[in-house]
Amino acid sequence: MEGGAIEADASAFKECFSLTWKNPFVLRLALSAGIGGLLFGYDTGVISGALLYIRDEFKAVDRKTYLQETIVSMAVAGAIVGAALGGWVNDKFGRRFALMIADFLFFCGAVIMAAAPSPVVLILGRVLVGLGVGMASMTAPLYISEASPTKIRGALVSTNGFLITGGQLLSYLINLAFTKVHGTWRWMLGVACLPALLQFILMFFLPESPRWLYRKGREEEAKKILRKLYPEDEVENEIEDLRSSIEDEVKQEGSSQKINIMKLLKTTAVRRGLTAGVGLQVFQQFVGINTVMYYSPTIIQLSGIASNQTALLLSLVTAGLNAFGSIVSIYFVDRTGRRKLLLCSLVGLSLALAFLCGVFQESTTHTPVISRQATLQFSSSFTCPDYRSSGYANWDCAKCLKASPDCGFCASPTDKLYPGACLISNSTVKDTCHDQSRLWYTRGCPSKYGWLALIGLALYIIFYSPGMGTIPWIVNSEIYPLRYRGVCGGIAATANWISNLIVAQSFLSLTQSIGTSWTFLIFGGVGVVGFFFVLVFVPETKGLPIEEVEKMLEKRTLHFKFWAKEEENLPNKTVV
C-alpha cells in the first residue's frame, strides 16, 4: 500500500455493499455522518415547493421577485459563513464536534421558520439553517473520507452525495404530503428539524476522525479507531503512512499544530489542490444545478404547467433521477475514476442545457394570443391596466405576463392554446377564472412544448448527478494534505456557497430580463468551459491513499490525456 495506489475496480462497489455484514461500523459511520448531506439536500429541495405557498400567504413575497430570491438565497448566505467557520472549527475542535454544531444550528433554524409570522422572521430562520448546512456540507464528506478504507473511499463519500439527493427527493415527497394540510409551508420547513436531531444523537456514539486525532497527538485513540476501520492486513501500513505524513509536516513546518496561511498558499501541493477543488465547486454551481433544485416547480410552471400541485408532482421526477444518479456514482466512482465521470457529465449536461434553451425559446415565441373579446367577458375592473392602456393592442400571453407582475393569463375554456384574457393577478380574479373551468397562469404560458422542457430537465439531471453532482465533494475530501484539510475544505465549500448564492439570487431576475432560454444557454456555456478546466487542472485520485495524493500533486503538471491509464497519474511515475 505504501508508495503506490490500491487497485480500485468493480469489486470496490461490492466491497462497499458487503460492509453491511463484514464491518457494519464503517457503514454506520458513513451513513450517520451522511445525514449532514441529507440536511443539505432537504433544505435545497424543500424551499422550492414551500415558496409556492409562502407566496400565497405573504402577498408581498408574491409581488416582489427580490423577496422570493432573498428567502431562497439567505440560507445560501448563511452557508457561506458556516462553511468558512467550518474549516476553522474542524481543525480546532474536530469533525465530530463540527457536525454536532451544524445540527444544533439547523434545528433552531427549522423551528424558527415553522413559526415565522412574517417574511423577516422567515429569512432569519433561513440564515440559521444556512449556517448549519454550510458547516455540514464541508464536514460530512471530510469526516467520511478520513474514516474510510482507501479502496472504497470514493464509494463511501458518494453515500454523502446520495443522501444529498435523497434529501431533495424526500423534501418533494414531504411537500406533496402537506399540500392539503393547514399551514402547508410551515410543516414543510419545520419537519427538517427531525433529521438534525437524529444526527445530533447519533454523533454521541461515533468516534472522532482518526487522522484528526493523530494530528493532535492522540495517537493511541487514532490507532484504536483505525483498527476498527481497516482489515488486519492493511491497518499497520495505514498507521505507518499516517505517522510518516505527520512527521514530514512537522519537519517542514516545525509544528503539527500551528497553521501558517502564507505557507499554505506557497505550498505547491496545496495550491494545485485548491485550484482543482475550488474550481470544481464553482463550476458545480455555475452550470445551474441549484436553479433546477430551488426553482424546479417554478421552471415547470414557466414551461406552461399552471397547477402548484402538478408542478410539485412533476418535480419529483427530477429529484428521483438525481437520487438515482448518485447511486450510479457510487458504483462507478472507484471503477471509472473521478475525471472521466466529470468529463462525461459536463458534455451531457451542456447538451441538455442547449436543448432546454431551444425548448424555452420556442415556448416563449409561440404563446396564445390575447383576445380583447375574451378579456372583456370579465368585469372591466379585472382587465390588466397595462393591456388597457395599450389600447387593447395585439398582445400574446408572454407579453401580458412580462408587462407587469400584477397581470395574469386566463386561458380559453375550450383549449388552453386558444386566445385568452389578460387580467389583473389577484386571488379574486384567479378564483373567477377557475370558476369558468379555465386555467390561470402567472409564471409561464400554456405551450405545446411544455413536455419537452420536462425531458430536457430529466436529461440534465441524468448527466449532472453521477459526475458534477458528487465528484467535486469527493475530490475536495481527499485532495488536500492532512495538515490543511479542514482549512482548504472550508475554502472550497465557501467558494461553492458563494457561487450558489450568486446563481440563486440572480436566476429569476435573469429569466425576467433576458428570458429563460438565454439563461439556460449561459449555464451551458459554463459547462463547456468547465470541461476544459477538468482536462487541464483536475488530477485523478482514484485508488490513491490519502497520504499519497500530496506526492502526486507535487509531481503533477498539466494533463490533457484524460483517457490515459491510471498508472500514469501515480506518484512514482512521470506525468505528461
Automatic annotation (TrEMBL):
Its main location: membrane. It comes from the Eukaryota. InterPro entries: MFS_dom (IPR020846), MFS_sugar_transport-like (IPR005828), MFS_trans_sf (IPR036259), Myo-inositol_Transporter (IPR050814), Sugar/inositol_transpt (IPR003663), Sugar_transporter_CS (IPR005829). It holds the Pfam family Sugar_tr. It is a multi-pass membrane protein. The chain crosses the membrane at residues 29-54, 66-85, 97-117, 123-144, 156-178, 184-206, 273-296, 311-333, 340-361, 449-475, 487-508, 520-538. It is found in: Membrane. Residues 29-542 form the Major facilitator superfamily (MFS) profile domain. Keywords: Membrane, Transmembrane, Transmembrane helix, Transport. One of its GO terms (molecular function) is myo-inositol:proton symporter activity. PANTHER family: INOSITOL TRANSPORTER 2-RELATED (PTHR48020:SF38), PROTON MYO-INOSITOL COTRANSPORTER (PTHR48020). Belongs to the major facilitator superfamily. Sugar transporter (TC 2.A.1.1) family. This is Major facilitator superfamily (MFS) profile domain-containing protein. The lineage of its organism: Eukaryota, Viridiplantae, Streptophyta, Embryophyta, Tracheophyta.
